[in-house]
Structures are given as structure tokens and as C-alpha cells.
Amino acid sequence: MNPRRPEDREHSHAFLGHGHDAHERRTRWVVGLTAVMMVGEIVAGTVFGSMALLADGWHMATHAGALAVAAGAYAFARRRAGDRSFTFGTGKVGDLAGFASALTLAIIALAIGVESLQRLFQPSHVAFGEAIAVAVLGLGVNLASAWLLGGHHHDHHHDHHHHDNNLRSPYFHVLADALTSVLAIVALLAGLYLGWVWLDPVMGVVGAAVIARWSWGLMRDTGAVLVDRVPDVDLARRVTEAIEADGDARVTDLHLWQVGPGHYAAIVALEAAEPEAADVYRARLAGLKKLAHVTVEANRG
Question: Which domains does the chain have, with CATH numbers?
């Protein structure tokens, strides 16, 4: 990390999310678990001659890559948090990684859907017993990974606007793996005991549709942060009301955007017959805890 000047300590641009270090550690653990299971499925698929396992193994390989990107984003954001060449810090690096992961999820969903439709019309032989055993093991790994990333689930219900999108991306990748494992187990059991070979590709199509929906939600949320969409309309209204509370000031221009998970920046331009110093107006916004960086321009008007 670059050394910080005295003035930097008074005006920090380190807008990392709450629990950033803990989330980074959890993501690293999940990368390791996913990589181990990926190798196991590829080896098992090759040994048992199961295309289903082999395909899922390479499917997990893409997830492992996306998870590694998320872990790398955490590390980069932490190490460069004090780098003044990033105008508003590195808090949005996670959203960039999340958007990339969302695109990866969309590609995976498309690939699973296409392959499933092909297998629906051209069924392939599957070693059901061995495939079920490995799929159950894979589901266990996915559930353990989801537990490690469980902090996201709590944050999601606590405050929608405090999403750490870099944590959501590995969480959704893990959910996608868990979903495909559950659907695979159901389909394999039906194929083994009922002879319903057709159920395996049908479940693949269902899984692809659900993964595509998750991908779209993550892409929409991360994209909104990257293009600086107003993250909280209610907060924008409260900023205006606080500035105009004296009856003299009138907000003429307001920019509000997210600079990191749970951290917002605002630029407020106002006019007043007798304008106060900028610090006076900033003090009126002190009670709005989400505002981490405020710039005020007061003009006589």
C-alpha cells in the first residue's frame, strides 16, 4: 500500500465494504473447495466413462475461475485502497468482478441449455451408480461453500443497499453448482430406478433457466453501480431536505452514487440568498451514515 500523506488520513477514499477481509478469506476457501471438487469430477468422469460427470467437472472449472476473480478483486481492492490514483478508491472493483462473473454465469447457462437440448434428442450412456456418488459429494462441497459465504445471505436481508456484489457473485456460482448437483441427483436416480433417461436433459434445461435468472439479477445490480445509477432514491430525497431545512438554501444539482459496498458519495450544488460555508451544509448531512464522501458547492442566488 502506498504511504499516505497527513491530508489523506483526514480525507480517506478507502470505501471498502463492511467485513471486507472476512469475505476475502471465505472466498479463498470456496475457491479451494471448488478446485478440489473440479479435479475429482473430471478424474471420476474419465475413469467411469461418465460424460455427465466430465461435463460437470469442466462446468465447475469455469466457476473456479470466476471465484478466483472474486478473490483477486478483494485482494486488489484491499492492497490499493490508499492509492490516490483511484479518484474514489477501489470500492467498486468488486462490482466490476461481479459483472464479469454475471457474464460468465450467463454463458454457462447458455452452454448447459444447449447441451441439455442436444442430449434430449441424442441420449448418451451414463454410469448411474458412480455418477450419483460423485454428484452427492459435489452437493456436499457446494453446501459447505454456501455456508462459508453465508454472511451474504444475512446482509441481503439486513439491508438491500448494502450488497457486496463481489460476494454475491461467488455465492450465486455456488448456488448454481448446488442446483445443478440436486437436479443431477434427481435425474440420475430416476434414470437408475425408473429408466427415465430423458429426465437428465430436462433437468439441465430447468437449471439453465434458473442460472440465467440469477445471472441477470447480478448483472443488473452490478451494472447499476458501474454506471453510477442513483443507488437510493429515498436517501437523495433526505439529502435535499436536510440541505433546504433552513428555508433559504435550494438544491440546484445533486449527484449521488455508490463508491463501495454501503458507501455513497454526493455532490451537492445549491443557491441561497445568504449562503453559509460549505462545512455548515456538510454538517447538516452528518446524520446520513451512508454518505462517506460529500462535496458541497454553495452559490449566492
Answer: 6-226 (1.20.1510.10), 233-300 (3.30.70.1350)
